[in-house]
Amino acid sequence: MARGRELRALRAALTSAAGGTAAAVLLSGDAGVGKTRMAEELAEAARADGALVLTGRCLDSGETGLPYLPVVEALGPVRERAGSRPALARLFGDRVELGLPDAGLSAAATGAPRVEQDINQLQLFDAVHALLAELTAERPVLLVLEDLHWADASTRRLVSFLLSRLRAQRLLVLATYRGEDLHRRHPLRPLLAELLRLPAVERLDLTPFNRADARSFVSALSEGGLGDAAVRDLAERSDGNAFFAEELFAAYSDCGDRGDALPATLVDVLLARIERLGPAAQNAVRLASVGGRRVPDARLRAVAGIDGADLDTALREAVQHNVLVTEHTDVYTFRHALLREAVYHDLLPGERVRLHAAYAEELGARIGEPGVAAALAHHSMESHALPVALRASLEAASEAERLGAPAESLEHLERALKIWDAVPVEQRPDRSNARLLERASFVAGTSGEPERAIAYAKAAVACVDAAAQPEQAAHVRRRLAQALYATDGREEEAGQVIEAALELVADRPGAIAAWVHAANATILRGLGRPVESARHARAALAQAKAADAGGAEADALITLAMLDETAGQVAAAREGLRAAMDLATRVGAPTVEIRARFTLALNQYEHGDLAEAVHTLADGVARAAEHGLTWSTYGLELRALSLVCQYASGDWDAADAAAEPGHRVSHVVWGRLTMLGALISVGRGRFPEADRVLAEFRTEDHRTTPTPLVAAVVAAELALWRGRPDRALDQLRSCLADTGSGWEMMAIRLAALALAAAAEVAHTATSRRDEDAVTSVAAEADTLIALARDTATKGAPRTGDLGPEGRAWLARAEAEHARVHGAPDPALWHRAVEAFAYGAVYEQAVCRWRLAEALLHADDRPAAADHLRQAATTATALGAKPLHDAATRTARRARISLDSDATPRERVDLFTPRERAVLALVAKGRTNRQVGEDLFISEKTVSVHLSRIMAKLGATRRAEAVAMAYDRGLLEKPIEG
């Protein structure tokens, strides 16, 4: 999973050592990041290959602990081989009495002359080296020395001796250590610098999981038993540390809703680092923990209340022991968020309140500076100064909105709502609770939390007396209707709410009435009532112009433009959308501007103008970000449509990035984006990623979003590429049944994929001579093509006519249907290829591959070869491994080379020229040393090239890499005879 690259590097080193090139790897990483697990996996692989594994562990017993302890443990399994070597025999006995004291002790302390100690130590080192050489002559040896940061001086000297004499032994030494424990004066530091200059020694840094891998790890731990929100929370709190994630998951499983508490075992591990500090440093760390994970130096000094020099000394000790790190010259940061959390929760209650009050007092003197309001709100809340916390929370919410950070604004608003009733009326700001709730609803909607937007809007509606404040009541109902309409499946409810709002302003024309009419026009158009929608849009225009409400006017113009598009007036629609966009920008109505940009991009996409759509979307996404509306209703639509366009046009790297929210959003929003991203995961052959997304999707309620249809496509594509067409057909059959008789336009694509699966099922049944199965699937195929055709003619496309995407999928459906009933039809596949030429490069490449198969069946090899090469070229450019492999298999069966005369090998070559040369020599049985001699490069460089080759192929051994290269046609087999 997330450690594949590091494990492949270690296995490559092991393979190289087994071939006679001794090596050492120094594996560095924080505590709990996975060093021991990595060593265990390598040891398991080594045993499976017949190697001898010797493992020793250092203990935290200081420089005066037992010398050579890890070496004694490692050599324990071969202790009987020590009999012929007196130095080794003494190693397993009383070392001090036998003249083998720790080299770190003085001659006076041991009672033995220094020269004699050195001679005895050298004899021991030679004996260990000779024993290892003897063992490697029989079979490869993996020597694992764990926790080298705790090694005594003698063990460090022995390691240095052994690693400096690595030559042609079949030996790999793996030494692990904690980089975070190596403070400036740690004795291992100079040794590492010395060792890394040796040609046979490499360092491998094991970093924490990134965000995506951390979520995958937690999801795997839970075996799909946790919802997405819990998975994301545990992954983020762990900061990518595997041990921390495991402990947090265990606590969550044991405590349920109390899963935010730190487990005792984890607290003990974390606080052990603090207890190594002196009293002054511990106090400084406690003080810093109240300030948060990151604390400015000036703020820390202002609240410390101690002499600056004493604080410097305390902080320097905390930094040297990697408890705190200095990001910049003026900021201290806890190395890990959970370390800060453990220290903070270890404070006494009174101590915590007192320190928060000190921070609040310091911040109160600087109110108005950027970021101060948010910090003041937090510290005032924790020190029970609620009036100050309320005012600061509202100021922080406004500041976050101005900076385009709606999620943070929502947090501040929710804190204000939490303490609103606890603050005396005379000390509250001059605003009502209903206004605060309405604002929270809007901000929740812009931060990707549609469900909370609805909840806050409903609370606002309940707070306003409609009889006493009809316009305010209409206003909050409009907000609720918009929140409901933004959530798929709740359009009817939105219509009912907006009707109630209309009744309240029926005889009160003005800006609020204009907005209510504009919102009603939008909802009615979505409900399929275009005539009424147009009437309310025109009413909104009239009232907006009279009240100078430019935002409502622009909103109504967008709805009228959409109605023009449905009527087939494309040019008029685009002109209206641009006019609405300009007006919204001019009057400062960003949410309306974003809606206009999205609607224009959608218009361009659905008419096949992909290049224009991509440009419009890029501008729209940028504008949404400027206004903090990235996760608003139409900000999300912009991002989702951008991802769809990037997928279609072949910009898969950008689409991959856009599919990762990078921000805490609701499970509905997360599911929408990641499911679209799963299309790329399948297309690129990252099947486990797609499995994970589908599994997490099934644990959440996405039934009322577009996601189930996309999930059906993902699941079907995944099953087809895995060679399970029967499963794909089952999934698509079920999904098509759920769409009902509403002529959902997505049904054309679903039917085409179902026909592709049916064609594979029919082919298998024909090869087995199962006539009943052939007849059954042929009948189902007839039903599927009828559905696709009927949807194309009876459906109601948003544009009024079936667009190029719908026509392309219908063409593929026709071609797949013919394949079910017998030989593939080249003419139909030609039409499908041409239909996807509007810009859907991947789908066109898939059709080219199928067209090539049809041409081969018709015995047109030259044309088939051309289309196969084009399909393979596109697949290579996209990184679409399953499609490339399929095209390669077809070419191999037909004895067609995928190379063209113009570009001989570069079309599909995964390797650099040097990597290809190395792989070719390895295929001939050369060792790393021999390869290096032939190519005039070092053995270490050869090992690096092999590691990269195996990573590209997904291989774990040299022989496996060669076999996979032959199988994929990436390496020519020697001509026999």
From TrEMBL:
InterPro entries: AAA_16, P-loop_NTPase, Sig_transdc_resp-reg_C-effctor, TPR-like_helical_dom_sf, Tscrpt_reg_LuxR_C, WH-like_DNA-bd_sf. The keyword DNA repair does not apply. It holds the Pfam family GerE. Residues 904-969 form the HTH luxR-type domain. The keyword Nucleotide-binding applies. Keywords: ATP-binding, Nucleotide-binding. This is Helix-turn-helix transcriptional regulator. The lineage of its organism: Bacteria, Bacillati, Actinomycetota, Actinomycetes, Pseudonocardiales.
